[in-house]
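Sequence only, no structure available. Ideas?
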Amino acid sequence: MDEYSLIVSAQNGEKEAFQRLIALYYPYISKFLMKLCKDEILSEDLTQDTFVKLIRGIDHFDIHGRASFSTYATTAARNCYIDYLRRNKQIYLSIEEFEIESNIDLQM
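Reply:
I predicted one. Tokens follow.
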């Protein structure tokens, strides 16, 4: 079964088509996310999140559009990574941001 048929079948709710799409694209998306985040555990989590989003949103993929499914999947993976970064944003303050009184005696 070709990619087009798999996507159409997945859009019609066929579970086997979903499984075959996942098997086809999982290694590619996993490697892509590993290159982005450089963390094996995080890339696995993000890959799973990506495929959950792809499965839930398969109806939104335009089979006749200009983007290929691999582009659609890669974009979804990149967005999952960006969402992760936003959710886990850490604030780093520079030492220059703090005002220090100049008349403090630092000797003990």
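The helical segments are 3-11, 15-37, 40-56, 69-87.
Hope that gets you unstuck.
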